Automatic annotation (TrEMBL):
Protein name (Swiss-Prot/TrEMBL): Uracil-DNA glycosylase
Record InterPro entries: UDG_fam1, Ura-DNA_Glyclase_AS, Uracil-DNA_glycosylase-like_sf
Gene Ontology biological process terms in this record: base-excision repair, AP site formation via deaminated base removal
Family according to the record: Belongs to the uracil-DNA glycosylase (UDG) superfamily. UNG family.
Keyword match Cytoplasm: yes
Keywords noted in UniProt: Cytoplasm, DNA damage, DNA repair, Hydrolase
DNA damage is among the record's keywords: yes
GO MF term set: uracil DNA N-glycosylase activity
Domain of life from the UniProt record: Bacteria
Amino acid sequence: MNVQIEESWKIRLEPEFEKDYFRTLTNFVREEYSQYPIYPPGKLIFNAFNLCPFDKVKVVIIGQDPYHGPGQAHGLCFSVNDGVRFPPSLINIFKEIKDDIGTDA
């Protein structure tokens, strides 16, 4: 898994990456990826830490159930790439946004 992490996150997370628990976790995740279909693709598991610098973060949303269809998950919760059919949870979020603020998201 060749992940990319934006520099401001890398500076903050690097100390954790060196700890035994994280190395154990990394080995486990690599093994799982080698045996099973897992989403998102390994290189995208830290996509959120690559696309938004630390000092630009305003809100953090953590999803409970990751998208599990091919091509859906790309490392950001409640998001799919352009051209990918919206999963039901994302459709519901857009409906709630429209109900709450009266506009399409």
